[in-house]
């Protein structure tokens, strides 16, 4: 690792103009490319105290041995040069939105004399136009089967084409009129290319002209009493309608727009883009990428607005549309140009950074005005919500795919064992998190992972007994209380105490809805690794409790959200796991699950308290009976509509108490 101070430019030598900078390693390889409105201000951020840098940024500046920059006239030129250099140098530490090579695409080899329609997986090639990706290969085959009735273009391989050409007779598709048979000269190269142009135009969303032409020809054939041709054209129209049925109408016919949304966590980002043409969703694409240090942010929770959205969107817009324009220019298809890849309207979930420069960049590609905005209401807002849900689901499935792989889970556990110097891999891991709002309704969660997978039947949730209740919360004390209650329970389980005594330590739940017998179930065995959500203070408090309870067979660590640091008791410096390590992904998933479980319980408790608070003024009505009332009627509104006799039906309520509740709810004092 290099000390960044060795190659830091001398004070005052970095210009204050806009420009693009590059970090290079000792071999001259470009590690990172960035742009700045003010080069001096931006670069100075990289040479601050290393402990204040994000781990990925810290790794980048320590891997580099040199930084260079190029001054440009304005911020638009900086954006264009940054995009060019990212494509040229493929820097290791930049966010890269590459095509997903696992999904199939419908390809058209427009660079050939007789273009071919075919299913394709892999990197893009020059002279080939692509549609998709599709979720399943059968969807492409079915689309081709339907559309080759209308556009009888070649679908055979080069070997089959040459063989039939040598034989002088078409293949089966030529005989059943699903191929125009250019191999035997039924159509010329120009005529075949016109068929392919019609197909690509249709797939690009221009369905109206094709539909109108077929309807016109069908009418003309019927008037000329050519009923056989009219029936064939009717079948063609049915095939087109069947393909278009799969493209749901979401906006007006004139709407041409792209909808883009992100779902992120501290390490990765999932992006989804829906292409809407003539009011229909004709395409959807998605990527999951690792966030670069510049856009990595740990100061937010799942479901909250990620402060890095603006930067990620700006970089995605330039990379995606810049690449699309480049591919369109190299496809060799005259019907498609770089100007057509950028729609008139681009709808995003948050305003991109440097919006003005991004708009100029895209308008230069399109050659006309481009509108980038955040939809606020109506059908476009509803569709944006759908795109957001798809992005969130893509990120979730990406994580589940990683955790579902046995090899990956084994690697993560092995990496944790090595990083924490454990005697054995942590096959059982427990993690706790605190949730509250300004010190009220303080609760905690305890989640359990075995062999890298959640064991929800062993989840626990707690109400903090020692919470101040005065609008302030001591997270350190709360962590200490949870650790004490959890391991007191562990010690009592070892002594096999009666269940009615052990009930005082924990309130037991599961994520799934299942009947509880009322008997507190024991933990199967203690964890090899216990994680607390927090840094050095929380870890020190938890370790003090373990020492007090003489628990020596559990490894304790804390995870600090801001920089994903792992704190070990007694160490002044945290353990930093590599960002792309499987152990880091596992730790992060466990911490996120603990946070989700805690905040769900907190919301339940807060909602229950708010519902019951209106009954606080009823004399003789304690917390247990208040809860029974709310549970019986479901809401305070329903309770207010109940009669005295109906209130008497609640367990524990007599005529006097029922009348008191009724009178209170119908008096001015109840609000």
TrEMBL record:
Keywords assigned by UniProt, alphabetized: Cytoplasm, DNA damage, DNA excision, DNA repair, Excision nuclease, SOS response
Q: Which residues form the UvrC family homology region profile domain?
A: 259-546
Among the GO biological process terms of this entry, one is:
nucleotide-excision repair
Q: What is this protein called?
A: UvrABC system protein C
Q: What is the stated purpose of this protein? A: The UvrABC repair system catalyzes the recognition and processing of DNA lesions. UvrC both incises the 5' and 3' sides of the lesion. The N-terminal half is responsible for the 3' incision and the C-terminal half is responsible for the 5' incision.
Subunit comment: Interacts with UvrB in an incision complex.
Keyword GTP-binding present in the record's keywords: the answer is no
**Family, as annotated:** Belongs to the UvrC family.
**SUPFAM superfamilies according to UniProt:** C-terminal UvrC-binding domain of UvrB (SSF46600), GIY-YIG endonuclease (SSF82771), RuvA domain 2-like (SSF47781)
Query: What positions does the domain UVR occupy?
Result: 208-243
Location relative to the cell: Cytoplasm
Q: What is its main location?
A: cytoplasm
Q: Which Pfam families match?
A: GIY-YIG (PF01541), HHH_5 (PF14520), UVR (PF02151), UvrC_RNaseH (PF22920), UvrC_RNaseH_dom (PF08459)
Q: Which PROSITE patterns match?
A: GIY_YIG, UVR, UVRC
**Which part of the chain is the GIY-YIG domain?**
16-95
Question: What InterPro entries does its record include?
Answer: GIY-YIG_endonuc (IPR000305), GIY-YIG_endonuc_sf (IPR035901), GIY-YIG_UvrC_Cho (IPR047296), Hlx-hairpin-Hlx_DNA-bd_motif (IPR003583), RuvA_2-like (IPR010994), UVR_dom (IPR001943), UVR_dom_sf (IPR036876), UvrABC_protein_C (IPR050066)
Coiled-coil zones: none
UniProt-listed SMART domains: GIYc, HhH1
A GO term for molecular function: excinuclease ABC activity
This entry carries the following GO cellular component terms, namely: cytoplasm; excinuclease repair complex
Q: Does the keyword Transit peptide apply?
A: no
């Amino acid at each position: 690792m290099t000390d960044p101070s060795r190659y830091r430019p001398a004070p005052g030598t970095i210009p204050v103009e806009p420009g693009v900078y590059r970090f290079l390693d000792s071999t001259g390889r470009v590690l990172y490319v960035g742009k700045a409105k003010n080069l001096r201000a931006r670069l100075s951020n990289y040479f601050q105290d290393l402990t204040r840098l994000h781990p990925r940024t810290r790794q980048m500046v320590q891997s580099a041995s040199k930084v260079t920059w190029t001054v440009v006239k304005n911020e638009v030129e900086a954006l264009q040069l940054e995009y060019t250099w990212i494509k040229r140098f493929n820097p290791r530490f930049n966010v890269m939105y590459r095509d997903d090579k696992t999904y199939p695409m419908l390809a058209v080899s427009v660079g050939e004399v007789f273009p071919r329609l075919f299913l394709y997986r892999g990197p893009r090639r020059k002279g080939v136009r692509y549609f998709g990706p599709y979720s399943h290969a059968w969807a492409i085959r079915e689309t081709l089967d339907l559309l080759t009735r209308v556009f009888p273009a070649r679908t055979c391989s080069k070997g089959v084409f040459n063989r039939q050409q040598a034989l002088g007779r078409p293949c089966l598709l030529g005989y059943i009129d699903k191929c125009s048979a250019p191999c035997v000269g039924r159509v010329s190269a120009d005529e075949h290319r016109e068929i392919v142009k019609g197909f690509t135009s249709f797939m690009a969303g221009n369905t109206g002209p094709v539909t109108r032409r077929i309807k016109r020809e069908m009418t003309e054939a019927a008037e000329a009493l050519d009923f056989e041709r009219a029936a064939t054209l009717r079948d063609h129209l049915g095939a087109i309608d069947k393909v278009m049925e799969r493209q749901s109408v979401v906006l007006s016919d004139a709407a041409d727009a792209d909808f883009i949304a992100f779902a992120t966590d501290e390490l990765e980002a999932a992006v989804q883009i829906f292409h809407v043409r003539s009011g229909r969703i004709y395409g959807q694409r998605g990527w999951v990428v690792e966030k670069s240090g510049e856009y990595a942010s740990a100061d937010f929770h799942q479901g909250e607005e990620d402060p890095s959205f603006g930067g990620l969107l700006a970089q995605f817009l330039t990379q995606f549309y810049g690449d699309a324009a480049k591919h369109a220019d190299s496809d060799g298809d005259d019907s498609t140009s770089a100007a057509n890849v950028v729609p008139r309207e681009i709808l995003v979930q948050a305003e991109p950074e440097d919006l003005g420069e991004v708009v100029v960049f895209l308008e230069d590609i399109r050659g006309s005005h481009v509108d980038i905005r955040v939809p606020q209401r109506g059908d476009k807002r509803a569709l944006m919500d759908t795109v957001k849900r798809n992005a969130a689901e893509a990120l979730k499935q990406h994580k589940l795919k990683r955790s579902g792989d046995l090899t990956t889970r084994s690697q993560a556990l092995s990496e944790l064992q090595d990083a924490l110097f454990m005697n054995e891999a942590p096959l059982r891991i427990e993690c706790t998190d605190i949730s509250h709002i300004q010190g009220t309704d303080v609760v905690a969660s305890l989640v359990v992972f075995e062999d890298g997978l959640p064991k929800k039947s062993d989840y626990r949730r707690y109400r903090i007994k020692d919470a101040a209740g005065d609008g302030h919360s001591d997270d350190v004390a709360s962590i200490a209380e949870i650790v004490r209650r959890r391991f007191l329970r562990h010690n009592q389980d070892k002594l096999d105490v009666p269940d009615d005594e052990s009930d005082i330590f924990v309130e037991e739940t599961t994520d799934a809805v299942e009947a509880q017998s009322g008997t507190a179930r024991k933990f199967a065995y203690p964890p090899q690794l216990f994680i607390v959500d927090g840094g050095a203070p929380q870890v020190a408090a938890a370790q003090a409790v373990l020492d007090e309870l003489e628990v020596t067979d559990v490894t304790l660590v804390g995870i600090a959200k801001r920089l994903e640091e792992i704190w070990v008791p007694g160490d002044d410096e945290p353990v930093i796991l590599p960002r792309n390590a499987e152990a880091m992904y596992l730790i992060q998933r466990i911490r996120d699950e603990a946070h989700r479980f805690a905040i769900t319980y907190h919301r339940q408790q807060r909602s229950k308290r708010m519902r019951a608070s209106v009954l606080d003024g009823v004399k003789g009505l304690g917390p247990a009976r208040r809860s029974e009332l709310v549970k019986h009627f479901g809401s305070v509104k329903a309770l207010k509509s109940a009669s005295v006799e109906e209130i008497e039906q609640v367990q524990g309520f007599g005529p006097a108490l029922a009348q008191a509740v009724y009178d209170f709810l119908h008096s001015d004092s109840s609000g």
